[in-house]
Specification:
alpha/beta; 13-stranded parallel sheet; two-stranded parallel sheet; 32% helix
Length: 430
């Protein structure tokens, strides 16, 4: 069989199997030698491990001891692992640490690492309140050990994500020097005022992608200063994502954009309650964005809509959509949330007529722009007895309104709803 089935065909067959269908993947790995490697890459590509103190809560995770024994018995299995999810409890014993260090010496093809502080499952209100402080359960020296262990021999590492943890500036600086792509999710500072008196790190960073989600203290640490950012070599950044920042972080977002504008190729700002990102808001503050992003190719923005009404496009965003401001722009994605209407035809288009005309003209003038997507989420708050037309009806109605509002961009195939065609996943009900 190995002589009659090409490797390319085997890879296509195995790739067609859904990720959650592990039984079929197991069967493929046993059916013939030619299927073994491709199937095992799918089965073993992601490794989930945890410290012993949270193992009883994480049935899908393995202990370091279990993985160490497996790799010692079958070293070839370690070559398939490209992603590791590491869940940490409060403590990691010395014996565990030796086993973990042994595990990571086997992983020569590692690309992505997720280090997560594990929160115990909550059932009562008291437990839920306690879980809000769960990130403080993981001791700082345990986090430092984890970062050192992961980064010691990982030349192939491309991405590091830290989630649900409490960090010091030294740990943050260590993280941004581990891989070209680093993400912080729900991370808090060890101290409330940890940004004072912290020198700029002396080790230059080769960081190309930075994502900060629900971790506004990290944004403040990196970009709180107008004059000199704490982030080493911010000019190396090619992609920046800021998610879940409140109005009090406006100046930090402004500084982040200004310090990275010359090299940034992708900018994503989601769920950030900044006046300039609210449709119809009239802010007298200085512009949150610099005059231009000369290399920006992709822009994704979540825009707040008061009451789902028609309003002018926020000036801060409109300025970015001119060819002078973003001459290399290729893709724009706007995300909106609407309160659901009884009839799809009643769903308003977001912007006023004047705004639509200017926007249509700007989109057409861009020499490289390939798509401007409108991703919409229809929200409903009420009892389950209310019935609505199917989501695709709302998408179809909104697509018609988009075509009328942006006729030239729609005819050119630039303006679209949810990407190419109708994306049913773009509409949800909550």
């Amino acid at each position: 069989m190995a002589n009659t089935v090409s490797k390319e065909l085997v890879n296509r067959i195995v790739a067609s199997i859904p990720n959650d269908d592990r039984d079929t993947l197991m069967s493929c790995s046993l059916v013939a030698p030619v299927f073994r490697d491709a199937s095992q890459r799918r089965l073993l590509g992601q490794l989930s491990v945890c410290s012993l103190d949270v193992k009883d809560k994480l049935a899908t995770h393995h202990t370091f001891a279990e993985v160490s024994v497996r790799f010692t018995t079958s070293p070839r299995l370690a070559t398939h692992v490209t992603i590791v999810r590491l869940a940490l409890g409060a403590e990691v014993a010395k014996e565990e640490r030796r086993e973990a260090e042994s595990v990571f010496t086997w992983l020569k093809q590692l690309r992505e690492v997720y280090i997560e502080g594990y929160c115990l499952q909550t059932r009562t209100l008291a437990e839920a309140k306690a879980a809000q402080k769960c990130r403080t359960l993981v001791k700082l020296e345990v986090i430092e050990w984890a970062l050192d262990t992961v980064g010691r021999e990982q030349r192939s590492l491309r991405s590091v994500t830290l989630s649900e943890l409490t960090l010091t500036p030294a740990l943050v600086d260590k993280a941004v020097n581990m891989a070209p792509s680093v993400a912080f999710q729900s991370v808090e500072p060890e101290l409330n005022d940890w940004t004072k008196g912290i020198p700029t790190p002396s080790v230059p960073s080769s960081l190309a992608e930075l994502s900060i989600s629900q971790s506004s203290a990290i944004t403040k640490y990196f970009f709180g200063s107008q004059m000199q950012p704490t982030l080493p070599n911010p000019g190396s950044l090619r992609a920046l994502t800021l998610d879940g920042h409140g109005e009090d972080n406006r100046s930090n977002i402004e500084n982040a954009c200004r310090h990275t504008a010359k090299t940034l190729e992708e900018l994503n700002i989601f769920n950030s309650d900044v006046p300039e990102f609210r449709v119809g808001a009239k802010s007298k503050l200085r512009p949150v964005f610099p005059a231009s992003f000369p290399h920006l190719k992709k822009l994704q923005m979540h825009i707040s809509i008061p009451g789902g009404s028609k309003c002018p496009l926020p000036a801060a965003i409109a300025a970015l959509l001119t060819p002078d401001a973003t001459p290399l722009l290729e893709e724009v994605v706007f995300s909106f949330a609407y309160t659901i209407c009884d009839q799809p035809g009643d769903l308003p288009f977001v912007f006023t007529t004047d705004t639509s005309k200017r926007l249509d003209r700007s989109l057409i003038r861009h020499p490289r722009l390939k798509s401007a997507e409108w991703d919409m989420m229809c929200l409903y708050y009420g009892d389950d007895s209310t019935t609505f037309p199917p989501p695709e009806d709302y998408l179809a109605a909104f697509s018609q309104k988009l075509s009328r509002a942006l006729p030239r961009a729609s005819r050119a195939g630039i303006a679209r709803v949810g990407g190419a065609g109708v994306d049913l996943g773009a509409v949800g009900f909550v």
